[in-house]
Amino acid sequence: MPQAGNKFAGKQIGVFGDSIPSGWDGYHFYLNNSYFDWLSKYLGTNKRVMNDAVPNAKIVGHRFAYIGTKRVAQDLPVAISYHQSQIKKMNMIFIHIGTNDYTNLSGSGNLRNVTRHLYHDVMTIKRINPNAHIYGVLPISRYDELGESRQNMVNQSGYTYGQLREAEARVYHKLGATIINFQKFAPNIITDQNKDLTLEDHEIHPTAQTAQKNGLRAGKALSQINNFT
Length: 229
Fold this sequence. Notes:
The protein is of the alpha/beta class.
């Protein structure tokens, strides 16, 4: 996009998180078309995204998973540990995670426990690469199987989806990360009215087209703020 100019050229984008940033639509991957792939294209980085996001990843956990026949580090702590050499090469590191910790029976505990782990994980990334700029992407809109928004819905651990988003924002702000909140700068991409069209499973996973729109809006936001890089 013209407004990005060449200030993002050569920037290495890195991604940690769950199914949303990994490019999973709830049924299959739209390969090389995650919203971060689009973001990189729109910003003109001219570099392939280092995308270490894995479906069902959590902030709290130490699991590995299989993507096809490949065993990969899934939850955030092990993903960071496993990809330390990559992290050192990243200029812009995006963290988009949390919705699976909110899910009932996640085992992640209460909100204080989730945010404590997130704080520790972001600090670990900062120690590995103190020169990278970190972006905390708040979980995108989510709905239950009846189509009701989870924003004010209390889970089994006693907190709402909205409270999770607010708590994550506080952690990112405290650690000097740039907060990416799609509900603020792109509220019309996913709404209560269009979720059946914009979310492949009508609950949480964006369609390929929605992912492209997210990449475009994120690119516009980053291009308009001088200190994003």
